[in-house]
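Example (one chain per record):
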Amino acid sequence: MSPLSSNAPHGRPPLRTVQVLGGGNAGGSAHVRSLSAGLVARGVRVTVCAPVEADRAYDFAGTGAGHVHVPRSSDPASVAALRAVCADADLVHAHGLHASFRAVLALGGRTTPLVVTWHNRAYAEGARAHLMRLLERRVARAATVVLGTSPDLVDRARRTGARDARLAAVTLPRRPPTAPDDPDRLRPKARAELGATERPLLLAAGPLDRHRGHETLLDAARAWRDLDPAPLVVVAGEGPLRPLLQRRIETERLPVRLLGHREDLPELLAAADLALLTSRWESRSVLAQEALHAGVPLVATRVGGIPHLVGDAAELVPYGDPSALADTVGRLLVDPSRRDLLRERGARQAAGWPTEDETVAQVLSVYDELTQPMIL
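Predicted structure:
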């Protein structure tokens, strides 16, 4: 099948694929929905195996794909349910480490090609970290092809034993259109609601966990108290560190607000002067992509796939270095020409990222390679 064809040529039946998703990663779920829509539009039969909660959130069935509820668990019942769905598949494509491990168990030595996409890294400590390494090795060696969403994930797959590891083309899926209001008109209202009418607004977003660097962000915010006017930092996200972070904000009188879970990241970015990404590791950060698309200057940690993603379109700082973060933000706030340059570079960098069509075409080319009968 040609990657861009919509019908199976030469009388071949449509390619039957199963997409296996754990449902715990928003980026992976959005990617599977986008991929499913593109594959179905090109005549591929798609069945998404994912928890029912993921289907409610991402409406895989709305793309024309089938959906089968498979819990995130790797217990025998879940594996058996997945095995039944994969029995007639021409190819299985699993997304994320745990979903990929379930797919390996379900295929159980069958010759069905298995494509695995690693969207991120699994963090763990102690005995669990050892278990994660074992799972990675098992998956990497069992997969026919491993697709990594950043160069360091491709290198990790190769070191772990993958026989074929490649860089994945992954786009930021298009958001559905929202209200037709003018963002420039809404910006003052959004800033007023956040409490930043006459002061710079800095936006961070992501789960409030130990790997996102929010404590470093609070350390840097101590230095920003002395700026005139002092910027306001708003953090969109929820997680286990919220009580600790909130206590620090109140005790140290930091100019920081925790907004909790938000669904309006584009609107928050439209109101922001700078976007901040302080994570320990990221592959294709949604915040980084949205910021560059929106023309918001970005300060991010130099980790994982971030340098490859943003190129020269962001200010990069070391992870866990509050002084570097504070100084870089302080310089940007008083340098409008540098901010304008980052906006220009951001638009150019974002224009070079894969489109949804290009992402689907790359995946289909891999599928074709693994399923086309060999011509002697």
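Caption: The two ends are 18 Å apart (CA to CA).
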